[in-house]
Design brief:
The protein is of the alpha/beta class. The chain has eight helices and seven strands; from the N terminus they run αααβαβαβαβαβαββ. The chain has helices at residues 3-18, 23-35, 44-57, 71-78, 93-105, 119-123, 142-152, 178-192, and strands spanning 61-65, 85-90, 112-116, 130-135, 153-162, 196-205, 208-217. A seven-stranded mixed sheet has the order 3-2-1-4-5-7-6, with helices on both faces. α7 runs parallel beside α8 (178-192). The longest helix has 16 residues, at 3-18. It starts with a helix and ends with a strand.
């Protein structure tokens, strides 16, 4: 069996044991496919990791940059206490409306605040502190998102940034690949910032070859 098939099979095995989707999440994926949303949301296993990290940090206030259809937001929101809040940013009004329906169906309508517009413009209007920030939007602006995340995170808060390995393209970002260039620059800035202690988890599986950056604000 080729390596990529083994990676995917193991992912499915792990998800079956630890990250089985309930009816809400299954319907969310089905609705997203029918609506033509890009299939770029996190996997079920990655969603469960987001859930566990939220629970482990005791986060009560989460900032997500990149809502899409609300799939990762549901995993994050379900880890919040009843008084918790998820603030999630989405550029596309149609995706934001789709995500609103997703949050309502998941019973998170009163806890999820969707803000629509260019992320950097919206971020400039926000005040902290947040306990956890999840970056999962256009990678070319990750360096700028990082500056805002550092401003908004509380000491001891957790920063998560998805898709930062780009199938290894961050090693030598090709000319014209602004996503890989942005991810590589983000990692360089994060590694050099004394306010954070961080690591990157390289990942293979259903979502291909990529990685998740985890950083704690000192």
């Amino acid at each position: 069996m080729p390596d990529n098939q083994i990676f995917e099979a193991v992912d499915q095995y792990i998800d079956g044991l630890f990250a089985s989707e309930d009816e809400v999440l299954v319907r969310l994926r089905q609705r997203a496919a029918e609506a033509g949303l890009p299939h770029i949301e996190v996997s079920a296993g990655q969603g469960k990791l987001l859930y566990l990290l939220t629970r482990l940090t005791g986060a009560c206030r989460i900032l997500e940059i990149g809502t899409l259809g609300g799939y990762s937001g549901v995993w994050l929101g379900r880890a919040l206490p009843p008084e918790g809040e998820l603030v999630t940013l989405e550029l596309d009004p149609a995706y934001a409306a789709f995500a609103r329906a997703s949050f309502n169906e998941a019973g998170l309508g009163s806890q999820a605040l969707i803000l629509t517009g260019r992320a950097l413009d919206v971020l400039a209007t926000l005040t902290g502190p947040f306990d956890l920030v999840f970056l999962d939007a256009n990678k070319d602006e990750y360096p700028q998102y990082f500056a805002e995340a550092a401003r908004l995170l509380r000491p001891g808060g957790l920063l998560l940034a998805d898709n930062v390995v780009r199938k290894g393209a961050v090693l030598e970002p090709p000319a014209g690949d602004v996503m890989a260039q942005g991810a590589a620059r983000f990692l360089e800035i994060l590694a050099a910032d004394p306010r954070f202690e961080a690591i990157v988890l390289q990942q293979v599986g259903l979502k291909g070859h990529d990685g998740l950056a985890l950083a704690r604000r000192r």
